[in-house]
Write a structure and sequence with these properties.
There is one protein chain. With 442 residues, this protein is of the alpha+beta class. It has helices at 2-7, 9-31, 37-49, 55-73, 79-97, 107-122, 129-132, 134-140, 142-145, 152-168, 324-336, 344-357, 361-374, 378-390, 394-409, 416-441, and strands spanning 179-186, 189-196, 224-228, 232-234, 237-239, 242-249, 254-260, 276-283, 285-301, 304-322. It has 16 helices and ten strands. The protein has a six-stranded antiparallel β-sheet with strand order 1-2-3-6-7-8, with no helix packed on it. A four-stranded antiparallel β-sheet has the order 5-4-10-9. Helix 12 (344-357) packs antiparallel against helix 13 (361-374).
Length: 442
């Protein structure tokens, strides 16, 4: 049985019928996209991305070829001719539009390319109109003439060699708009941006390549996406945690920033304004630096972020406020000011949080005192001295530093050198506090 499978011409005919059926199912699914406005807009946008001439017309040519090819394969009619057209079509999709991403996104189009190449050399098999019609048989049915040479063993060798090629092949053409990603932790919130980065390449970007007052996908290819691990506030509107697509409407001095719920979009295909969750007006600014490629950055301000979008000599930005302060203050109110926590480091960390934000310093002193009461850690005292200095309470800072020297000298886990360094540092600060105190008094 196994030997027959590898050598019998009868089984070869059956395999060709099976391959035809599988290929028809796949290629018809592709070809029927010609009747879908959504898919045709996406294919047209794809061709525009690579600056292909007549993108709308060529998109319809490609899809129509796929549809007619599928219909032709059903009865096996004019198989070799249609296979040549589809080999060209699939080669274009695989190597030009898809940048030869093998293995990866273009593996299916590449396998279809191989199938149509096989149909070109072998025809559509004994059970087809090509082989039944005397006029077509000589040209379209080579399998009847070279049956002894077309052994299944040879086809399997070609198949496994193809798999080996696909497994080891790599992208041979650089992407015109390479993918970019930036991820940043802001306070207690993770913010990420995934986008494709088109380049100017000598073109005038805003006003020509990207039209003013027209919706722009703010990137290339698949829609640009921004994600938040926690709820945030943008433009005084609360945005739930999740991932959103970014669109903009550029203007000469002002842009409209749009976040949309649909993250499956390719370009502007099927964009639905009813799914917008926010539209925000932002100012456009000129930059001294020239950005050859679209660049998105995230800058950190205390527990919040500013997202910058720059291309050419134009830049916009918008603020993202996290709920980190709200969560931190809620924890302090619920667990620390009520003495529910027995972890001294939590009290000290809360005091440090207020210190670095330079707010609620009286509460910071209260919290660090609670930490010291639980454990006399050396950095707790340094933290308290820092807070008192920020408050310009120099007398209290001197008293705290003097007490810290005394406690540090009694630490059994410190060597003499460490104790001496600590004492020297505190004495320098005490002298500084005395000078500052005298300035105030005078």
């Amino acid at each position: 049985m196994i030997r027959k499978l590898f050598s019998s011409s009868l089984y070869l005919d059956k395999w060709l019928v099976i391959l035809r059926a599988i290929t028809v199912i796949i290629i018809m699914e592709y070809g029927l996209e010609v009747f879908s406005k959504k898919y045709m807009e996406g294919n047209t946008a794809w061709l525009k991305d690579i600056q292909f001439p007549l993108p709308l017309f060529m998109a319809y040519v490609g899809k129509t070829t796929e549809l007619l090819g599928g219909i032709s394969l059903i009865p096996g009619l004019f198989t070799r001719t249609i296979s040549i057209l589809l080999v060209i079509n699939m080669s274009f999709i695989t190597f030009i539009m898809g940048n030869a991403k093998l293995p990866g996104e273009e593996i299916l189009s590449f396998l279809l390319l191989l199938l149509f190449a096989a149909f070109f050399f072998a025809g559509s098999g004994k059970w087809s109109l090509d082989c039944r019609n005397k006029m077509l048989r000589a040209r379209y049915c080579p399998i009847l003439r070279y049956r002894k040479r077309l052994k299944m063993r040879a086809l399997l060798v070609i198949f496994f060699l193809t798999l080996t090629f696909v497994s080891f092949s790599q992208t041979i053409f650089p992407s015109l708009s390479p993918k970019g990603r930036i991820e940043q932790k802001i306070g207690l919130t993770n913010i990420s941006v995934d986008y494709e980065r088109p380049a100017a390449r000598g073109r005038k970007v805003f006003g020509e390549l990207v039209k003013y007052d027209k919706l722009w996908r703010t990137g290339a290819g698949n829609c640009t996406k921004i994600g938040f691990s926690e709820a945030v506030v943008i433009g005084n509107k609360s945005i739930s945690k999740g991932t959103y697509s970014i669109f903009t409407i550029p203007g000469t001095s002002e842009w409209t920033l749009i976040l949309n719920k649909d993250t499956t979009l390719y370009g502007l295909t099927s964009y639905d304004a009813t799914k917008d969750i926010i539209r925000l007006k932002v100012k456009a600014h000129s930059t001294d630096r020239y950005y050859e490629s679209l660049t998105i950055d995230i800058d950190i301000v205390p527990n919040n972020a500013i997202v910058y979008l720059s291309w050419e000599n134009t830049q916009i930005s918008f603020q993202v406020k996290t709920e980190s302060d709200k969560l931190a203050n809620g924890f302090i109110q619920q667990y620390l000011l009520t003495d529910k926590s027995r972890n001294s480091d939590e009290y000290a960390a809360a005091a440090e949080y207020y210190y670095y934000l330079n707010k609620d310093l009286d509460r910071a002193v209260l919290l660090i005192d609670k930490a010291i009461a639980m454990k006399e850690e050396s950095w707790y005292y340094r933290q308290k001295v820092d807070i008192l200095e920020m408050q310009k309470k120099y007398e209290e800072a001197i008293d705290c530093a003097t007490l810290a020297i005394s406690i540090d000298q009694k630490r059994t886990n410190w060597d003499s050198r460490t104790k001496q360094q600590s004492e020297t540092e505190y004495k320098k600060r005490i002298e500084f506090f005395k000078r500052q105190k005298n300035k105030i008094n005078h």
